[in-house]
């Protein structure tokens, strides 16, 4: 890796750490001649954190009537790329630089949208104790992520149409003729994080946010699963 490439990479990682409020403790590079092609690099990292036991969000406090507040995603985030590649490049026969009107950008630009970091957005609400549970919507979509935080006797009922489906997901559904229920399991459909909030705390919770948000449903009596209503 050239000196310029190293400098740019380190600057980018350091900038991301500053934005997230975390410390960059170190790193290393491995020289592997002949393994990577010229100009190809592999970058991996991990984050270690600590939380007070009393502040752990394990979903046990979730109860009937709690509100589901969804925060929008920027794109596919970390899930659905195998499906996207097949749909765009094999089924539709597009190229990375093909422009799609619904996306108002190229396929490459749409697929390379970075995963959002929700910690800065939720920091104030978490500090104020306004959140009963959080579900990060990655692999499995809303269907197979939100149910993981539900206690016995609580069902998450989502109101379809209560948020705008991300254009990228809508295009994928059109190209692949994929029905809505499957898309809700295969992609985030435009919701990257779901917060479970007491009805009495919704206004205070929303006041801490500096991003778009949508009331997408509520907790009702039932099995710990996700259901949908039109």
Quick recap:
This protein has helices at 3-20, 81-91, 107-111, 119-127, 167-176, 180-186, 202-207; strands at 67-72, 99-100, 105-106, 133-136, 154-159, 191-197, 214-221, 226-229.
Distance between the termini: 53 Å
Mean residue pLDDT: 93
What order do the helices and strands follow? HEHEEHHEEHHEHEE
Oligomer: single chain
Number of domains: 2
Strand residue content: 15-25%
Which ranges are low-confidence, i.e. pLDDT below 50, for 5 or more consecutive residues? none
**Rg for CA atoms:** 20 Å
Q: Overview of this structure, please?
A:
This protein has 230 residues and is an alpha+beta fold. The protein folds into 2 domains: 1-49, no CATH class; 57-229, PurM-like C-terminal domain (Phosphoribosyl-aminoimidazole Synthetase, Chain A, domain 2, Alpha-Beta Complex). It is built from 7 helices and 8 strands; from the N terminus they run H-E-H-E-E-H-H-E-E-H-H-E-H-E-E. The chain has helices at 3-20, 81-91, 107-111, 119-127, 167-176, 180-186, 202-207; strands at 67-72, 99-100, 105-106, 133-136, 154-159, 191-197, 214-221, 226-229. Strands 4-6-1-7-5-8 form a 6-stranded mixed beta sheet, with no helix packed on it. It has a two-stranded antiparallel ribbon with strand order 2-3. A hairpin with a 4-residue loop joins strand 2 and strand 3.
